[in-house]
Fold this sequence. Notes:
The structure holds two protein chains of two kinds. Chain A is of the alpha/beta class. Chain A has helices at 18-24, 31-39, 65-82, 98-108, 120-135, 140-159, 169-180, 196-207, 220-230, 240-243, 263-272, 304-341, 345-369, 377-405, 411-421, and strands at 5-12, 46-51, 55-62, 93-96, 188-192, 212-217, 233-236, 249-252, 278-282, 299-303.
Amino acid sequence: xxxxxxxxxxxxxxxxxxxxxxxxxxxxxxxxxxxxxxxxxxxxxxxxxxxxxxxxxxxxxxxxxxxxxxxxxxxxxxxxxxxxxxxxxxxxxxxxxxxxxxxxxxxxxxxxxxxxxxxxxxxxxxxxxxxxxxxxxxxxxxxxxxxxxxxxxxxxxxxxxxxxxxxxxxxxxxxxxxxxxxxxxxxxxxxxxxxxxxxxxxxxxxxxxxxxxxxxxxxxxxxxxxxxxxxxxxxxxxxxxxxxxxxxxxxxxxxxxxxxxxxxxxxxxxxxxxxxxxxxxxxxxxxxxxxxxxxxxxxxxxxxxxxxxxxxxxxxxxxxxxxxxxxxxxxxxxxxxxxxxxxxxxxxxxxxxxxxxxxxxxxxxxxxxxxxxxxxxxxxxxxxxxxxxxxxxxxxxxxxxxxxxxxxxxxxxxxxxxxxxxxxxxx
Amino acid sequence: xxxxxxxxxxxxxxxxxxxxxxxxxxxxxxxxxxxxxxxxxxxxxxxxxxxxxxxxxxxxxxxxxxxxxxxxxxxxxxxxxxxxxxxxxxxxxxxxxxxxxxxxxxxxxxxxxxxxxxxxxxxxxxxxxxxxxxxxxxxxxxxxxxxxxxxxxxxxxxxxxxxxxxxxxxxxxxxxxxxxxxxxxxxxxxxxxxxxxxxxxxxxxxxxxxxxxxxxxxxxxxxxxxxxxxxxxxxxxxxxxxxxxxxxxxxxxxxxxxxxxxxxxxxxxxxxxxxxxxxxxxxxxxxxxxxxxxxx
Lengths: 427, 296
């Protein structure tokens, strides 16, 4: 077995509250410096820092597991103490070897995310990998580990439906809007009320392409404020009915005790619109819109419970898919560990010698039984000696180099290259 | 179904005895295989939410189309240069070929891959039907050997092919609308275009299909004059065509003037197509028509 091991020390949304995560988080602007500091730890041979709002992790390769764990723990503690407080105990997890590989693969595949299947983590992982690569703190092992983790993530994404289905109220609303309207960018939204969820949904709709937004609120000042925030148009509350006919999506998020819109009103509006479809999203408590609105043709009404129900259902589907994804991860971990084991230098050298010897013997025998058939025993012996000497001289430099390299960090790189160049992968 | 397909592929001895048509039957077999593969690929696309290769399904259909074109070409020359539609199988073959052609054009312009999930299996079944109902080249009555025949057949079939697609998007519209309205989520939803898009496609197909159908009817009545002596003779075939024409014309007018759309438009489209289809499949035996060829 080779000596270098893959280690991970970190904390995530499960093990640490947001205050702690924020304190440990690495500043993107001084990341290179932090990486170099990490690499300068005596036992750390390769290192990558991953720092998102849900996790802070150090991935390292080291020959001395115990010491490296200790150093990285201190490294993270220092990082935290810079910002004033202390106390990471109980928040950190540590993995080495097999479990560390599995952990990184799970992170990349978004199996360890707060919202399983969310797609951002892979991009973030790539970013931090590139940063470490540019800072020169990455070697053959982590290089291969990260690349493997990217392809694991890709496999999971194509072979399972883990990322499909919206899982937040806002994204469910956007999905529904997309099932009704296409394109979204010529549609307009009317936001009624200043509720937080309403703002969230409006923002998501805007991000999805909706360009025009009207905002109304009982107090006009608040409507102006909100309109400013969303770059929309404020409407007086008394007037909003008049503008309904130009609204394709209507989001209600007030705590008004009585319904703001009755079926009859919408029916009239619909006639004025020549039955262009309307999508009502009722986020109010109690309900803002008369539920009978949904009985009208070309009108679709969803309330907050409907949206939450769909999100919940999608989440359930994701966790079913996660099961499949875990199996893929298992497979990939096994494959990676096989590669890692194969990086041991002794068997590589043996294999290289064997290969050369096979070639030498093969060619020699071929010649001796054909073109050099008439050689005497003595001549044969001379030929034997000569070819042997050639092979060992050719191999001398690379093997010495390799043995010397084992004290340096690039060993894995050379072994890997050697195996590829001479086609030494075991059959 | 597989058994039928298998049998269809093994009409060998029967076919070879007919000599000349071996070639186009072989090509038609290749066509059927392509359509079947395309069907599988589209189903995987629709239900498993997976693109085998992003554009494989339409390409398989294109492959089938090319083989089909060759088959029809061979058949065309063997039949003496007239579209051979005197037999059910010939008509099925020609119609499915036009439908696939229209789909491929639509796919090129509007990228509604999901429509292929309707077109591919239908094209496959029709090609299969062409095998199942025998082989051979039908004899064309002497009176029909006029240039109005290919014109009429092409226009009428093309119009109907476009309406078949309008029918498909209307069905999809109703399904999608039902799902959104009743807050049901199914796997289909993820692949279906938005309601607005389906509605727009319905309109586009109507706008293209209606003039084709109109011209088909006009050229048909000219043929009727040649064959039967009258432009209009209250033949059941003429009556069903007229009903559908009025329905689609009314719908087109309603869309433009009264803002009919969505569900109403989808339902009318379906009814209009059902009238045509219904007469093709069953009506002919109840109200026999003098309309020669095809669906008798």
